[in-house]
């Protein structure tokens, strides 16, 4: 760091820049990949630590990784401003200003690291120890890159036309390993250079992109979410595959519907992010969280540990009781004194609490219905799935509705239902058998007691 801080800014820099260079370094952004971490400081410099490409090596033809236990600067990018960075298992993608400072849409795209699947987008499979510009997104490119994400061995970028303030058109580009359909190009072939995901609808403006190990997700400003890659774009591993005819990897974008009271779109989306085998979406301007994919260890946050094939609401925000556990007695006293209300205010408060309780119960019932419906039919629950008699009159003839549903179901749906009920019946029989065995053992023990 001492060596880095002693480096002078170019002569063309202003006095303000020179003054900023004397200021303490502050981290503005961080990113972590498979076995390495990155940070961007307030001067626009990029720092790296962990299992990193050996930039000290003079042999540029032999790629190797070395352990860096403390942050080191990326010297190749000194004199430029690093705006964003993303990293996969062993490769790095950075958006860097063409000049000394970032102005408008002047970013170029650098990549380096392991390239055994073309994940650097440089047109070959040769790994790089030092950053190299991806020619598709150089200064002369008509597209401006504004978002970047890395999977284990693939990369995704979002671009827009270089027209200031134009949010009418954007494009998602992917490259690298494509064996699970994670590139969204309609095939399982790998790609050595960036190619657009052509099956995304146009015009569309994408605001966020992220990659799991082997899947990719994007969200548009209008609230549409698309995913592609392993196991129908969910990122699930093969042992969690669907029953029926809709199994396999999604090689093209699949629309992920909201299927909630707001309709098929996610209202006011903010960001989408991917774990290894699950996806989380921030929507409603940050007031709601949705998740889907592998549910082990409770990563979906919906109160369960099972896999979810459709978006489910994360239990957010926490209950009032959970917040109150973290409050000090002094805070409570201040709140009590500052929240004295009239009798009418008290009644309104009770009414609001009742509404919140009803909303919470409704949310839980919707999640339960969605999970049960997904387990049986392997598709998200939609309002159109509610029987017409229940919608019109509030009553339900279960026998008639069941017969009507069986009559209208196609073969695939009937097969899935048969498998579900067969497994459920087998579980019931198993439980009954175990209980009967216990009863027989208990009867034998009682019959063979003292004096028998």
UniProtKB/TrEMBL annotation:
<dbReference type="InterPro" id="IPR009091">
    <property type="entry name" value="RCC1/BLIP-II"/>
</dbReference>
<feature type="region of interest" description="Disordered">
    <location>
        <begin position="322"/>
        <end position="343"/>
    </location>
</feature>
<feature type="repeat" description="RCC1">
    <location>
        <begin position="223"/>
        <end position="285"/>
    </location>
</feature>
<keyword id="KW-0677">Repeat</keyword>
<feature type="compositionally biased region" description="Basic and acidic residues">
    <location>
        <begin position="329"/>
        <end position="338"/>
    </location>
</feature>
<dbReference type="InterPro" id="IPR051210">
    <property type="entry name" value="Ub_ligase/GEF_domain"/>
</dbReference>
<feature type="repeat" description="RCC1">
    <location>
        <begin position="44"/>
        <end position="98"/>
    </location>
</feature>
<feature type="repeat" description="RCC1">
    <location>
        <begin position="107"/>
        <end position="161"/>
    </location>
</feature>
<feature type="repeat" description="RCC1">
    <location>
        <begin position="170"/>
        <end position="222"/>
    </location>
</feature>
<dbReference type="InterPro" id="IPR000408">
    <property type="entry name" value="Reg_chr_condens"/>
</dbReference>
<dbReference type="Pfam" id="PF25390">
    <property type="entry name" value="WD40_RLD"/>
</dbReference>
<feature type="domain" description="RCC1-like">
    <location>
        <begin position="19"/>
        <end position="315"/>
    </location>
</feature>
<dbReference type="InterPro" id="IPR058923">
    <property type="entry name" value="RCC1-like_dom"/>
</dbReference>
<protein>
    <recommendedName>
        <fullName>RCC1-like domain-containing protein</fullName>
    </recommendedName>
</protein>
